[in-house]
Amino acid sequence: MVQKAKILLVDDRPENLLALEAILSALDQTLVRASSGEEALKALLTDDFAVILLDVQMPGMDGFETAAHIKRRERTRDIPIIFLTAINHGPHHTFRGYAAGAVDYISKPFDPWVLRAKVSVFVELYMKNCQLREQAALLRLQLEGGGKPAVGDAQEPTGLLAELSARLAAVEEQAEALSKQLDDDSADAAAVATAAHLERKLTGLRRALDALEPGTDTGAPTLPTQN
C-alpha cells in the first residue's frame, strides 16, 4: 500500500483552512492543519511533509518568520513552501517572500485549479524521492551482504538484482514522464530543479546497481547521497 504524502496547511483563519482542504482533497493526500506559525513548527518536528502552504499575515509569528525558522532547521529546510497572501504590497513584498525561501507566492483570491496543480507537482516529486530512498535501502542491503542472500533467504542474488532493477526502472520511467510534463507546462524553476536533482540521484543508483551485475568488475559501487 502506497503511503500518502502529507501537506501542511498553515493559516490562522479556520475558514481559510477549510477552503484549502476542499481544494486539495481531490489529491487524496493527508492534509494537516496548523493555525499558527508555532503550531506549524511543532508539526514539523515529528512529521515529514511534501509541501507547506503558508499564510503570510498571521498574528504573532507571521509567515515570513515561520519560513525563516523552517529554513534554518536541517530536517525541514528543503521542504517547498508556497506563500498565500490576501494583500499585495508590490514587488518588494513578493521579493521578501522568495528571499524567505518560498518556491511560489500566490495572492488571494487564487484559482483553485492552479493551486491544486502546483501542489500536485511537489507531491509527485516527494513521492518519487521516497521511492528512490526505498530502492537505495534495498541496494545497500545487497551491498552489505556482499551480493549473497541472507541466511534463510531463498531468493538468489541474481533474482534480487533483477527485482531491484525492475523497481528502479519503474521509478526512472515515472521521473522521466514528470520531467517532460514540467517542461511542457513551463513549471516553476524550483520544481524543475528538484526534478533534475531526482534524475541525478536515479542515475547514480542505476550505476551502482549495474556494478553488481555478474561479470562486472568496476570496483566497489558507491550509493548516491540522499540529500
UniProtKB/TrEMBL annotation:
Response regulatory domain sequence ranges: 6-123
Modification sites for 4-aspartylphosphate: D55
SMART domains: REC (SM00448)
InterPro entries: Bact_response_regulator (IPR050595), CheY-like_superfamily (IPR011006), Sig_transdc_resp-reg_receiver (IPR001789)
Coiled-coil blocks: 161-188
Gene3D superfamilies in the cross-refs: 3.40.50.2300
Keywords of the record: Coiled coil, Phosphoprotein
Protein name: Response regulator
